[in-house]
Design goal:
Largest sheet: 9 strands, antiparallel
Helix content: 25-40%
Distance between the termini: 11 Å
Oligomer: single chain
Strand content: 15-25%
Number of strands: 11
Shape: flat
Order of helices and strands: EEEHHEHHHEHHHEEEEHHHEHEH
Number of helices: 13
Length: 364
């Protein structure tokens, strides 16, 4: 098995606000002394793992990341006829296995009793529950509802699973502050996407008209607003450690291959969801370079340290990327064992070719 699969993608997005900062503007980064649009790796990973493509392809092998599992357990117990006091006690105990409980409001602080009771069942940090752990929780809920309560804390600890088949946890990892033994090291590394050229974030001043305003008394708009956007060709880089992916998925080779194939499909076809209703900025990768080998992985972002200028930016970006790969091979020796390319503009290659290449056991 070739250990590393690296993906170098070029995706062109029209005017969009895919990933916003704290002021609602598109995220940016300085690179090569020029301003670039940026989409954070966290935004990309969330868009991929929560997409229908991911959930449908990996049905039964997707985890749940939440602080609110205690609330769900409480509701399930109540629905099964357990009285609220006992349901709350067990919900707190079970949730605390996966994280430290939220601090309750101090006496005297203003609070809405029912809402605060539920909030006190939350844990402080997001925990990623594998399907196996969720099934174990459901089984315990059924046991408690039927009167078969755990006798000690050791039984609750068995809810945690070191081995699991959660594809999203296997790819992107998880951290359980309550018990690091059950942490999972991510098998996939995802870089922040950046534009291959410099950009200027633009302002869109817009108005909305009141449909019942005839204009006889007030000809003005019913609403004034402003939003920011930018457009560009983005370079996206991923590196997947197949050895780690296989280990994270309990050595299930078929599931590991399906997970890798699904990630590639998501990375090339799924756009971040930010402001999609306003911009409809869905796009698919125009260029994919997939590389495999056991050598130390490397990004090719240096190909765009000097911004691509006017002209056919996509074609120039492709040439710059391929030239950089060739220069690194010349300087360091072969940096990968083999590569496969899909170039939509040139009509070369298919996504199926890329997926087959990446998931094969070995390459000549």
């Amino acid at each position: 098995m070739k250990r590393f699969v690296q993906l170098h993608l070029l995706t062109s997005y029209p005017p969009a606000n895919l990933n916003r900062d704290d002021l609602g503007r598109p995220k940016t980064a300085m690179m090569g002394g020029r301003l670039r649009l940026r989409v954070s790796s966290q935004s990309l990973k969330r868009a991929w793992r929560t997409s229908e493509v991911f959930s449908q392809a990996l049905d039964g092998h997707v985890g749940t990341r939440t602080k609110r599992m205690g609330e769900e357990i409480f509701k399930q117990l109540c629905d099964k006829g357990v009285d609220e006091k006992k349901a709350k006690e067990w919900a707190e105990k079970i949730a605390s296995v996966f994280g430290k409980a939220k601090k309750a409001k101090k006496s005297g602080e203003k609070k809405e009793k029912k809402n605060d009771e539920l909030q006190e069942l939350q844990i402080e940090q997001l925990a990623h529950f594998s399907p196996e752990e969720k099934q174990a929780i459901d089984a315990l809920v059924n046991a408690i509802a039927s009167g078969k309560e755990p006798s000690d804390a050791k039984e609750l600890q068995t809810l945690l699973h070191e081995s699991h088949t959660a594809a999203d946890i296997a790819l992107f990892g998880r951290m359980l502050a309550s018990d690091p033994k059950y942490n999972t090291e991510a098998a996939a590394q995802v870089a922040h996407a950046i534009t291959v050229h410099s950009v200027q974030v633009e302002d869109d001043y817009f108005t909305a008209v009141d449909d019942l305003n005839t204009g006889e008394e007030d000809a003005g708009a019913g609403h004034l607003g402003q939003t920011e956007f930018g457009a560009g060709v983005f370079y996206i880089y991923l590196c997947i450690d197949r050895k780690s992916l296989l280990a994270n998925l309990s050595d299930d080779r078929a599931l590991a291959d399906k997970t890798l194939a699904t990630l590639i499909k998501c990375a090339t076809t799924i756009a971040p969801t930010g402001k999609q209703n306003s911009f409809a900025s869905r796009a698919r990768a125009s260029y994919v370079r997939c590389e495999t080998g056991d050598q130390q992985p490397r990004s090719l972002s240096v190909a765009f340290l000097k911004p691509v200028q006017d002209g056919n930016m996509l074609d120039t970006a492709i040439k710059n990327l391929e030239s950089e790969a060739a220069r690194q091979d010349k300087a360091y020796g072969m940096c990968v064992d083999a590569s496969c390319v899909m170039n939509v503009a040139a009509g070369n290659g298919t996504l199926a070719d890329i997926i087959k290449f990446a998931t094969e056991a070995d390459h000549a």
